[in-house]
C-alpha cells in the first residue's frame, strides 16, 4: 500500500469510529479522486472502522447510540464509493434475509445486526418488522439466501421463530438455509429447542455466528 | 395452594421494621397474564378500567403475591401524548408510531392530562377499584414509564439515540415535557390511593452508556422520585438488561427498591448497594417462568433467595421483568410455593 492510500483508508476508518459523517464523505471523495479501488476502500476503510466500533461496543466503550452514529458515517461513505466499485472486484457475497418476527415492531436490535452483517461483507435483505414466518421462507428462496436471521424483543412472538423452522422442514428446505435467532428473551436453550442453527447474544456475536455458519466446512456439513 | 399467615401489607410493614414475618415478600410480576386468569382477551383491557381491575384482583387472589400492579403496556403515557399504539386482539399492545415524526414539531408536544388523555383515565379507574376493594390488605401500584423511556416513544428510540449525540438540548426538552406527564400521572396515582411503580427500560446499559444515563435520564428520574417522596411514598425503580454500572445512580435518584433482571446479579447488587436499598428480582421471565417447568422455577427461586435473603435492606423475590402473557399458572404458583416453603427465617 502506498502511504497515501494507507492514510486515506485509515482516515475512512477513523471517520466511522469518530462518528463523523462529513469526514467519511470527504475522504471517500478523495479516494475516488485519487482513482483508488473503491471496493478495497470499503473493506479496509469503512468496514475496518465499523469492526473497531463493534469492538468498542463489545468492550462497553460504545453503546447503541454510538453504534448507530458510526453506521451513519459508514453508510455516508459507502454511498460515495459504491458507484465506483468495479464489478470484477466484487467477491461473491453470502446472503442473509433478516427481519423482526410477526407481532413485534421493536427493530433496534435487528437494525444493528443488519448493519454489522453488511459491514462484514454479507449481502443483507431486510424484510423489516412484524413479518409473518412464511415471508422469511419465501424471501430466502427468492434471493437464494445462506442465512435466515430472526429477531424479537417480545416473548409473545417467539413461537413465530419456531414456525419458520417448521415451514422449512415441511417444504423439505431445512438444509438449504442456516437459521439464526436473537433478541431480548431468546436464549441458546430456546434456539436449540426450535431447531435453529445458532443464537447470537448481540450484533457483534451475530457476525461471528454468521461467519462460522457460512465457512466452507460448516456450510458443507 | 399453600395458605399465608399474613396479609401482604402486614408482611411488608413488619419486614421493613425487622419484625417477624411468615415468608419473604414475593412478586411474580403479573401483567397481561391477568387476562388469562379471568378468561378475557388482552385487547379487551383497552379503555376498560373495571376489567383491568377485575383481572388484576383475580390474579392476586389466585396466587397470593404481595403487590397488585395496574399495568398493561409501557406506552400509556406516550399514547396520551399523541403516540400511536397498536392493540392486537389478544396480545400486549405495541408502539406503532411515535408522537412526532419531525423534530420541528417538538414544540407541539404537550404533557398529558391523566384524567382525560388516552387510556390513563381507565388505568386510574382500575387503580381506584383495586384500592377500594383491597387497599387495606395489599399495596396497589400504578406503573409509570419513566421520563427518558417515555421520551423515546415520543420521537422513536433510534431518533432519540442519535439526538443524544447530535442535539442534546433537544433530548432535554423532550425529557422535560415527558417528565411533566410522569409527574401529573404520579400525582393522580397517589391521589387514587396507590403508589407509583417506575419502569425505565431504555435507561438500561444494554442500550445507553452509564454516562448518557447520568446526563439524560437521571436528572428527570430524580425529580420524579423527589416528587413521589414529597407525597410520602417510596418507589421501586425497575431497569432491565445490564445495570451494574448504574446502580449507584439509581440509588442517587432516590429509588427505595431496585428491581433488576437476570442480566444483573443479585449478589453483586447486594454487595454494591444492599446497605442502602431493597432489591427485587431476578428470575428469568421467559427462559424460566414461561418455558421452564415448575421444578426449574423452584430451582431458580431458591437460588434467588440464597443470593440475597441476607440483603441488609431486604429482598422481594420477583421475576426479572413483567411475565409473558402465556406464563403457565403452575409456574407462578411454584414460585409462590417455594417462597412459602422456605419461610422466614429462611430454611433450605
Automatic annotation (TrEMBL), chain A:
SUPFAM superfamilies per UniProt: Cobalamin (vitamin B12)-binding domain (SSF52242), Methionine synthase domain (SSF47644)
InterPro entries hit by this protein: Cbl-bd_cap (IPR003759), Cobalamin-bd (IPR006158), Cobalamin-bd_sf (IPR036724), Met_Synthase/Corrinoid (IPR050554), Meth_synthase_dom (IPR036594)
Annotated Gene3D superfamilies: Cobalamin-binding domain, Methionine synthase domain
Family from the record: Belongs to the methylamine corrinoid protein family.
Keyword Metal-binding (UniProt): yes
A GO molecular-function annotation: cobalamin binding
All residue ranges annotated as the B12-binding domain in the record: 93-221
GO biological process, one term: tetrahydrofolate metabolic process
This protein's UniProt keywords: Cobalt, Metal-binding
Entries under SMART domains matching the protein: B12-binding_2
Keyword Phosphoprotein: no
GO CC terms: cytosol
Entry-linked Pfam families: B12-binding, B12-binding_2
Protein's name according to its UniProt entry: Methyl-Co(III)-5-hydroxybenzimidazolylcobamide-binding protein
Domain B12-binding N-terminal, residue spans: 1-93
